[in-house]
Design brief:
heterodimer; A: ABC transporter involved in vitamin B12 uptake, BtuC; globular; B: six-stranded mixed sheet; six-stranded mixed sheet; about 30% helix
Chain lengths: ~400, ~525
């Protein structure tokens, strides 16, 4: 496509691009809208770096689960057990530290090992025995909750190693300004290493975007016109800086967010650039066509649930680290938040559609609602009602936008 | 009152681009068994859907007169109230419910929504008696054989006070004994004054049971007569009326040189996935040669698709027999084994089995080839040619090969990033074809490759088939359009009820001969 072909004017192109990606943009705009409303209602407390930084950490374990939940739902399944599994894996990590005196690394490996076994177990029933994922994971929801209580004995297991809890409450270190800044009296809140990482992220983003554009042009694909491309780069660069701003101006990047970021990049790569990811979308889009195309559906389903098991374990580790303890109720109802995050982020309940980035935005929407309503001291019962309504509206939006495109 | 229980006058029905019925006249006398015959797509089912109100009044033109008065049906309920009941080929029984519940489904014997089970059971037993079934009416349908299920369907129709019973291929799923029993029941019903319309591909049965016959061809009535009129009806006469159309030069036939045998099938038997004792393919043996187009003919339900789906590892039921490819015995249990052995299968159900409609052209075309190790097949030695390495997709290579196939097959799409659901039928079909060509098969099975696409796209697909054969690919073409099979194939196999009944070189094949074998002639 040469650029002469696209002369409907900048506004026309903008409108076309906007309606094309309506769902993704809509969610992003909804997020900004929620932030604006809470900022107004809390007289600015909501948007403070401290609050946003906390919001992201509070939300990290849901985001980790949502990343895997996207794959599960895109493939046409569901996983109701992730909260129980996260609680179970976290309890195992705490137990081996407190009672067997294992170090931090072995205890993390133990939790991951348990997550792997859970994934193998559930994957086996789904992929090889043909039991619907809904049933297998509903059974798992009960079984693994039982095992959490078994491991913890109904008690709280604490305290945990300092370098373990750092995963949930710690931040990456300062580079130069050690001790000179901070949130204590007489200190400046500024984090230098985070600023450096933020600038690096912007540079990497711009380079990738330009390279991608050149490649698409080389393949003869449509690309954005120069002014719009520039505007897109400027806007998204600004968004990246805004994202980092909250952390620069507080205590830096929390380790939990480092974990989330690595998982998001990894699973985004898997879902868009790898054969495995392509096949997941294919079985969700049309299982018969996928099977007749020679895709090994059993192996694929097995892998999806192993990945979900491991992500549940990571989520459990981060949550346990943040609480500095394991409890019998850890991870309760996480599955519903994770499913809601994926669906609000545009994952189709019918399978075949959904993105990792969308799920992260969905998780932020859910997290912002939780956080903002807590700041406003809205009672729990009303919080639940509002969250339920938001989920319903998001799915209705998904269904009605599907109809109009038909 | 006229002697005809119903008359359909000048019925025409159009679908986008197709005239399915063209001024059809169809009259049936009260109390007779009237057979309706014709090739696949001749318009039999469409005509019956007009009669039953499935195509409501206003969606067709022409008059429908029942017992002397013109009727306008808007729903199936309307026609049932007028005494017209259709029994479809795929039985419409709820398997997990009892026979009684099925018989009265939708017209339960109830007062204020509370079912009177005692009366229902008595009534059910009465109707079962009418069709000669001595069976517990509380038995679940899933527990009785398919022959008895067929009779339950008839009992259900009678319970609705059916005066005109339409049976669409009622014996297709039955064995010989059950078929004979069913025909006897129909004769008894006739004696009680029920009128039957009997749609069947089994001309032998038609001759034995029908009083009159109407032949449809290309949406028109060719002939309607009593069996003993005009010197009597015979199988041969019916066949020539069913096919009697001239072959146009729509097929780019090229002389091919058949080479060595690439695939050999011996004593292949396949059982039905649900009716486990029923054989859908019975002891079939044949060979496929390099560089030939092997045409597969047969009527609906003859087992053409089942045969090749099972050879491709996609039918999912018990089978028996031997298959060898390039002289090596192979054990194909999943489609991926078939693809690894150089076998590809383009399904007749483009949207259900061929495409992932929400994915783009590129992802659909490369779907079956992403994980093929091309160094093993020896086709593309250059590792850069591979579409993936260590599980990571080589997107550059993907774009290159997709563009190559889009050009080669002249796929009309605004971009290879276009979702395939937005393409026309012909272009969708080319996308599926491209997917299979990309796997570089040595044997390509095409199941109804030109179904539902326009004449121009058909011709293009025929030309591609010729090119492939020139390149040494063996092609199997399954088609319900006899002229297409005759026009393109080098050799034609004819199936009838799961058996191979004919094997003809194209020079000897005619429509009449194929139809003779397809209707079970020996």
């Amino acid at each position: 496509m040469s650029e002469q072909d696209q002369k409907p004017g900048l506004m026309g192109e903008l409108r076309a691009g906007f309606s094309h990606n309506l769902k993704q943009y809509a969610m992003f705009i909804a997020l900004l809208g929620i932030w604006a409303i809470f900022t107004y209602l809390t007289k600015g407390i909501f948007i403070s770096p401290r609050n946003i930084s906390n919001l992201m950490v509070q939300n990290s374990y849901i985001a980790i689960l949502a990343v895997g939940m996207v794959l599960v739902i895109v493939a046409g399944h569901i996983d109701l057990s992730v909260g129980s599994v996260a609680g179970f894996c976290g309890a195992v990590a705490a137990y081996v530290q407190c009672f067997w005196h294992w170090g931090t690394v072995p205890s993390i490996l133990a939790a991951l090992g348990v997550g792997l076994l859970v994934g193998l177990w559930q994957g086996y029933w789904i992929a090889f025995k043909g039991v619907p994922a809904f049933i297998v994971t509903l059974a798992g929801w009960g079984m693994f909750r039982g095992m959490v209580i078994l491991v913890t004995g109904g008690q709280t297991i604490a305290p945990l190693h300092d370098n373990f809890t750092a995963i949930g409450v710690g931040y990456i270190p300062q580079l130069f300004l050690i001790g000179k800044v901070g949130n204590q009296e007489g200190q400046v809140p500024f984090h230098d290493l985070t600023l450096i990482i933020a600038l690096l992220a912007v540079v990497v983003f711009i380079v990738l975007e330009l390279r991608n554009r050149a490649r698409r042009k080389g393949y003869g694909f449509e690309v954005l016109s120069v002014p719009l491309q520039a505007a897109k780069i400027a806007f998204l660069s600004a968004m990246i800086m805004v994202f980092f701003y909250f952390m620069i101006m507080y205590r830096g990047i929390p380790w939990a967010i480092v974990v989330v970021a690595i998982l998001v990049l990894l699973f985004n790569f898997i879902s868009t650039k790898m054969v495995f990811g392509r096949h997941v979308y294919a079985i969700g889009g049309n299982k018969e066509a996928a099977r007749l195309s020679g895709i090994n559906i059993r192996a694929l389903n097995m892998t999806i649930f192993i990945a979900m098991g491991l992500l549940s374990a990571i989520s459990g580790i981060v949550f346990t680290a943040r609480l500095n303890s394991a409890t019998a109720s850890a991870g309760n109802l996480f599955e519903l938040d994770a499913i809601a995050a994926a669906i609000i982020g545009g994952t189709s309940t019918l399978g075949g559609e959904g993105t990792i980035i969308g799920a992260i935005i969905g998780a932020l929407v859910m997290g912002s609602l939780n956080n903002g309503m807590q700041l406003l001291n809205i009672e729990t019962q009303f919080q639940m009602i509002i969250k339920g309504l938001i989920l319903l509206l998001a799915v209705w939006f998904d269904i009605s936008s599907r109809k109009t495109t038909k | 009152m006229s002697e005809h229980i119903f008359e359909m006058e000048n019925i025409s029905k159009e679908f986008p681009g197709v005239r399915a019925l063209d001024s059809v006249n169809f009259r049936v006398r009260k109390g007779e068994i009237h057979a309706l015959v014709g090739e696949n797509g001749a318009g039999k089912s469409t005509l019956m859907k007009v009669l039953s109100g499935l195509y409501p009044y206003g969606s067709y033109t022409g008059k429908l007169i029942i017992k002397g008065t013109e009727r306008q049906f808007h729903t199936i309920k309307d026609s049932e109230r007028a005494g017209v009941v259709v029994i479809y080929q795929e039985l419409a029984l709820v398997k997990q419910l009892s026979i009684t519940e099925n018989i009265f489904l939708g017209s339960e014997i109830a007062r204020n929504g509370v079912i009177n089970w005692d009366l229902a059971l008595v009534e059910a037993r009465k109707w079962l008696g009418e069709v000669g079934l001595a069976i517990d009416p509380m038995e679940k349908v899933v527990n009785i054989g398919v022959g008895k299920q067929q009779l339950v369907e008839i009992a259900k129709a009678l319970a609705k006070n059916a005066e005109i019973l339409i049976l669409d291929e009622p014996t297709a799923a039955l064995n010989e004994e059950d078929s004979r029993h069913l025909l006897n029941i129909l004769r008894q019903l006739k004696a009680k004054g029920v009128t039957c319309i009997y749609i069947s591909h089994k001309l032998e049965e038609v001759l034995s049971i029908a009083d009159s016959v109407t032949v449809l061809r290309d949406g028109q009535t060719v002939k309607s007569q009593a069996m003993d009129e005009d010197g009597g009806m015979t199988e041969a006469k019916m066949i020539s009326m069913m096919v009697g159309r001239t072959l146009e030069q729509r097929y780019p036939r090229k002389p091919h040189q058949a080479g060595e045998v690439v695939m050999e099938v011996k004593n292949w038997t396949v059982w039905h996935p649900e009716l486990v004792e029923k054989e859908v393919i019975k002891d079939v043996s044949f060979q496929i040669r390099k560089g030939e187009i092997l045409g597969i003919a047969g009527l609906m339900g003859a087992g053409r698709t089942e045969l090749f789906m099972s050879l491709f590892g996609a039918y999912g039921s018990r089978h028996q027999g031997e298959v060898s490819i390039h002289g090596r015995p192979v054990d194909i249990r999943e489609p991926r084994h078939a693809i690894q052995n150089g076998l590809s299968y383009l399904s007749e159900d483009r949207k259900g089995n061929g495409l992932v409609l929400g994915m783009d052209v590129l992802s659909n075309i490369t779907l079956a080839s992403l994980q093929i190790d091309s160094s093993k097949s020896g086709v593309a030695e250059d590792p850069a040619q591979q579409l993936s390495k260590s599980g990571v997709i080589n997107i550059l290579q993907e774009v290159v090969v997709t563009n190559r196939y889009v050009k080669r097959l002249a796929i009309k799409t605004p971009s290879i990033e276009q979702q395939v659901k937005n393409l026309s039928g012909g272009n969708q079909q080319k996308v599926v074809l491209a997917k299979w060509l990309l796997t570089e098969p040595s044997i390509l099975i095409l199941d109804e490759p030109t179904r539902g696409i326009d004449v121009g796209a058909k011709f293009e697909i025929y030309s591609i088939m010729n090119q492939l054969v020139d390149n040494g690919v063996a092609i199997v073409m399954i088609s319900s359009e006899l002229p297409e099979v005759l026009g393109m194939s080098d050799r034609i196999l004819v199936l009838h009820e799961g058996r191979l009944t004919g094997d003809l070189p194209w020079q000897e094949a005619t429509q009449e001969k194929c139809m003779y074998y397809a209707t079970g002639g020996k």
